[in-house]
Amino acid sequence: MGLPRVDEAAEVIEEVFENLVDQFSDPFTFYRELIQNAMDAGSNQVEVSCVYDEKVQRVCVTVADSGEGMSEKIIEEQLTKLFSSTKEHDLTKIGKFGIGFVSIFAIQPECVVLDTGRDGNYWRVVFPGSTQYFLYRLEAPVEGTSIRLFKRLPAVGWPEFLQRSEDTIRYWCGYSETQVCFNGRLLNLQLAVESPCSVEVSGPGTRAVIGMSAEGLPEFGMYNHGLTLKQGREALLPGLTFRIKSNYLEHTLTRDNVIVDKHYHKAMAILNRAAEHDLVEAFAARVDALQGQLPERLEELEMLMQSATNWLSHRPKLLNKLAIRPLLPTHHHGLVSLRELKSKGFLEGALYYDLVSGVVTEALARENVPVLWGQASAEIIRLYCPRSVYKANHVVACPQPLEKSQLPQGWERVASSMREYLRLGEHRLNGIQLADFDYNGSCVQGLACLAEPKPGQATRLFHRGVWRNLSFYPGRLLLNHRHSLVMQALSKHQEHPEICAYALSKAALLQDGLPQDMESKMLKRCWS
After folding, report:
1. pTM for the full predicted model
2. Which of 1, 87, 126, 212 fits as disulfide partner to 134, beta carbons 3.0 to 4.6 Å?
3. What is the pLDDT of residue 363?
């Protein structure tokens, strides 16, 4: 058995020791420090176990590695000497400050036992809970370093201790390049982000994954050899979520942040290049793949476009650069570019999107007007083009004219009289037709009539008034044959065709407001 070794300046050392222990606001972060030391020792795996002895109400934590171990000189000159470290200028070592081992005392253990060895000599160091320690020579070989911590703990506190242990290791060491096991379970995570579109990139001593995010405060993580330097939710790169491992990133003395220096900016430059090059190509490929699988994968497209909108809203130069690329999926035009949509929107006076293909999207396609898939795609358009963007089925109508065989007997006489009534208001018409307004996806079931500028052409409802659509072309007036007013008028068309025509004409004119003296002219003609 060895003898206690007491520093000559015991009081000073004890004070420094207490100050160092106090800096660890979360005592469970000793796991991070011990695993970090194991990695710096070259260990490719770290086994952590946490067991509880109910009889003596004591928890035993073991952290064992397969690293290079320590010699007696290292124990004397580094492990037991505060602030003594050989890592100051070595970028492959992240325990820069040489105080990691001290963190174990923040948990207030009864005793700490460390077994290690090197060059055929093996040692046990026992710390009875303070700066005092005992050094023993061991006969049995020891691989790497094994640290055991013993702590009194009431049984009621054991479940929380166990959970906090696992949570702490997972947080600080989840992306470690060294395998980390806790009570036999591997805790390592793949370097990945939650994103509908992400890419993996690399640079000197650096590997990262970056993806688009629709969240205002996207998740991020920064790691050195996989140990967490900083992670959380913050708009470091607005619209982007990322995780980056870099040998150049370093933590602050308090271990709760990253040092912002030239190495930090170098790492961020790698991410920014990826955001404007690699991610663009991945996005284009993703959209192209989804285009051919719609509407089955519309939900995925919506998530992708929501994230892309957030990403591009913070990079207007990139948005302009992408404007000529066919990147937006449409119902019947394949992929189209922002520039093409802007041109179409200028001519149309609006842009359209919809969630389903149908009568309206097909009618617009015949007029060479593209309709975007999904609402989220429309958000990207708003970033680039100031035109109004509508859901097609809400502002465009395509009533289906009835076949001749479906028309009531004597309909032509009513239609002819209606044309005469409407001419009194100088409304030009090529025809009046009964139509079915109740097609699949219709938004006009409740309307009595609509104007059709040209046969087969869809009617834009965002233009104010029925008759505005006929101001340039003498189109057709379509009457909803299932509307209660139309049905009631038609029920009298054989006995009183003029009254039927008068009632239907007045209903049509009332859509825009009856012109002055118009009703008296119509009544005069009706009674004549």
Report:
1. 0.78
2. 126
3. 92
